[in-house]
Amino acid sequence: MSLEAEVRTHFIKRYNKEPLLVTAPGRINLIGEHTDYNEGFVMPAAVDREIIFAVASNGTDQFNFYSIDFNETFSFRPNELKAGGQWYNYLMGVVNGFLQRGLQLSGVDCVFGGNIPTGAGMSSSAALCSGFGFALNEVFESNLSRLDLARIGQQAEHEFAGVRCGIMDQYASLFGQKDSALLLDCRSLTHEYVPVNFRAVQILLIDTKVKHALASSAYNDRRAACEEGVAALHKRNPTINSLRDVSIDILGILQQLVSADVFTKCKFVVEEIDRTQQAATYLKSNRVREFGKLMFETHWGLSHAYEVSCRESDFLVTLAEEVPEEVFGARQMGGGFGGCIIHLIRNEAVEKYSLKVREKYVATFKKEPDFYSVALNEGVHLN
Ligand code: GLA
């Protein structure tokens, strides 16, 4: 049975009525890491891994959910919204976003299930918020734009999961387009679609299966370091309001104003914003080798300067660098401390390379990595 049929069948069995069906994809990010909350550029894309929702209004004040993957039910009322690390806290955050905007909602019945690996840097939580928000917007005709929905998802993450994330993940899930990446300007919140058609090369994700318990506090610390750098520069020059406003030359001044650690973090971001713009020109002219080289640079910046990598991620990227005729670029993707390594790899090399990586990874870390080939897909939509 297809995922869509499974979700719909579960819904009808439970609630005995016909639901609205919505698909929300996870995302990859080709390049541009930790730049979104610094008003820089990012280059994500929605992929063919998704969460499907079946939703219908129930005319009460109760929100009822069944998660197929967790095999769990949960219900809440609007006066019971609270922060926490569970899947339903994100959904509470979305309801909160609607209510805060003064929108009229009644309760809903909802069943959802998907195939986005969690904690792998593919933004399953953004898909959860974007898809549920989109469904509420349809059911109650709230007239919110996709950008509003992205903001609601981001706010849910901040206030209900305690992670002060940027907007890349929600934006990519909502605005994705088949076979294209988004070149998203996180200052103007506008994007351009860039077709991805590297010939004979595919996007392969290798999941380290590492989930760092402190990843969200470390993420917030990095964001605070960036803010500290900006505040120091802003005092000198009030036109500087984000690291996007900082050129490589101004970095010299920053070095005098902040600790070595804060400086190193800010420098990485300023360079990454530049790298992402450069990468966009390579993508537009299909220069896969040059593009891939920048991905490796990003990775080592994430590892040595931004310090959000881990041994397992560095191990996989090092293996990739050893075979430049097979893997053109690789780097850790997402917030950091494990998750997936994104690879640009020659089609013909995938099978042999995957076997080799599996063997070496298991021998070194005593655990199996996962492999996902992904295709770039359309953003959140009605089925
Ligand atoms: C996480 C966040 C994003 C972004 C990335 C790092 O995925 O949710 O907003 O900051 O980390 O690029």
Task: Explain the overall architecture.
The chain is of the alpha+beta class and 383 residues long. The chain has eleven helices and 13 strands. The strands form three sheets. The chain has a six-stranded mixed beta sheet with strand order 5-4-6-3-1-13, with helices on both faces. A four-stranded antiparallel beta sheet has the order 10-11-9-12. A three-stranded antiparallel beta sheet has the order 2-7-8, with helices on both faces. A hairpin with a 4-residue loop joins strand 4 (63-67) and strand 5 (72-76). It is globular. The mean pLDDT is 97. The protein binds alpha-D-galactopyranose (GLA). The site of alpha-D-galactopyranose has 10 residues, from helix 5.
Summarize the helices and strands and which ones pair or pack:
Blueprint: H1 3-15, E1 20-29, E2 41-42, E3 44-57, E4 63-67, E5 72-76, H2 87-100, E6 108-114, H3 124-139, H4 146-161, H5 168-175, E7 180-185, E8 190-195, E9 201-211, H6 215-236, H7 248-257, H8 260-284, H9 288-305, H10 311-321, E10 327-332, E11 338-346, H11 350-365, E12 370-373, E13 381-382
Parallel strand pairs: 4-6
Antiparallel strand pairs: 1-3, 1-13, 2-7, 3-6, 4-5, 7-8, 9-11, 9-12, 10-11
Helix pairs in contact: 2-3, 2-4, 3-4, 3-5, 4-5, 6-8, 7-8, 8-9
